Amino acid sequence: MTAFSHLMAFQRETEALGLISERLGWDRETVMPRGAAGQRAEEVAALEGVLHARRTDPRIADWLAGAQAPDAAGARALDLIAHQYRRASAVPADLAAELARATSLAQGIWAEARAADDVARFLPTLARIVALRREEGAALAAAGLGADAYDALLDGYEPGATAASLGAMFDRMRPRLVALREAVLGAPAPRALTGHFPAAGQMDLARRAAAAFGYDWNRGRIDLAVHPFSSGSGSDVRITTRVAEDDPFNCLYSTIHEVGHAAYEQGIAPLHAFTPLGRGVSMGVHESQSRIFENQLGRSAAFTGWVFGQMQQVFGDPGLPDAAAFHAAVNRVHAGYIRTEADEVQYNLHIMLRFDLERALIGGTLAVTDLEAAWNARFLADFGFAVDRPANGMLQDVHWSVGLFGYFPTYSLGNLYAGCLHQALRAALPDLDAHLAAGDASPATDWLRDHVQRPGGLYRPVELITRACGFAPTEAPLLDYLETKFRALYRL
């Protein structure tokens, strides 16, 4: 065997073990007994120790030095393995295991604190995770993997991005978003959907929507979770959603969002399975798939017309007179606390808040004990009304409890990519709306599979989006799309 084949065989086992670890996380957040949290934390920590030992195995350096890539895909795989090796080697094994243990325990503590609206119950755990992530970020930055601790953590989710570049992006986006929000909120609001929508009917509708977007049920399943997520890759990609019986859009669009993530993983070329190319290339690109599914496609007038008919089948009269009123209700801009329920106009403003706060937490300029006050003050300044309770404030997201510092800005980057992809997709598929109106998203999902999903990690994020769109990514298509859509809906 050559050095390259030795390395790829070793990597195949490492990738398989990583998927097992991910499955333990899925189980923890869906069906694991509450009393098993402590045991699961030890299991996850033990497996992370095995994974860390493999990722830092000195033979990797020897294989990399002697490996000859047979083709461009092999060369890209070597680059990714080398980068992963540098990151893993920079983090001490005991720190990696402790992070796994602490974040496994923290998810349950966060969920209990959120349910009880009790910030104090969560703060000691969050302080521990922030300290561990600061330590990890500092170790990575010292190894040359980021200008500072935050950039080093960000690199783990969006290679090539920096806090400075993302901050500049937000500075360019904010004025147009704020101006649009003020104009929209100053106009008469469309009628909202109200009523009681039983959970069983919502799950039926969610399954219909997932099927419309091509989710492969032979390689997936849907379950309930406190915070919806997608998990897995290749032949086992699972999604979760949540149900509020007075708000069917929460379940419906959470499901479509997670189907976007799942479709990416299901759409990667099988030949990349169990290699570094066999997963989505970055969280920003991943988010581009979930956001374009959820918003540009799922909230379009054509698709919501189909959903309106499905709602009538499942629930009877939904209380809105026609498909146009239903489309307006789906896209209604409203004052709200929750990021995952935010309309397209305001969503990125929620991300900007979290981006600034988490940079300050990792940078040490904001103490965990001051986070709630900082969140509430920033929310009031940005959105114009006060947070009413912690579950609608700093406790609403799972991300910080599981240590995902550097993850939040990739949501807005995904929106930016989705805006570019939507512009290119519409140019390529002029009759798309006729298919969406029939509940058939396949022309769009096939285009995305061919241009974005199938390559997996073969190209760097910006290169992938540029190849798909024919132009370098910029925020302009997203902002133009939002202004065109919402000025029409609100007759501005």
UniProtKB/TrEMBL annotation:
Name its co-factor(s): Zn(2+)
Which Gene3D superfamilies does the UniProt entry name for this protein? 1.10.1370.30
Keywords assigned by UniProt? Answer: Carboxypeptidase, Hydrolase, Metal-binding, Metalloprotease, Protease, Zinc
Q: Tell me how the cofactor is bound.
A: Binds 1 zinc ion per subunit.
**UniProt catalytic activity:** Release of a C-terminal amino acid with broad specificity, except for -Pro
Which residues does the entry assign to the active site, renumbered to this chain? Answer: 258 (proton donor/acceptor)
Membership in a protein family: Belongs to the peptidase M32 family.
* Signal peptide feature range: none
Q: Name one GO molecular function term.
A: metal ion binding
Annotated residues that bind Zn(2+) are located at 257, 261, 287
Function of the molecule: Broad specificity carboxypetidase that releases amino acids sequentially from the C-terminus, including neutral, aromatic, polar and basic residues.
Biological process GO annotation list?
A: proteolysis
Could you say which EC number(s) this protein's record lists?
3.4.17.19
Alphabetized Pfam families for the sequence: Peptidase_M32 (PF02074)
The keyword Nucleotide-binding belongs to this UniProt entry's keyword annotation: no
Put simply, this protein is called: Metal-dependent carboxypeptidase
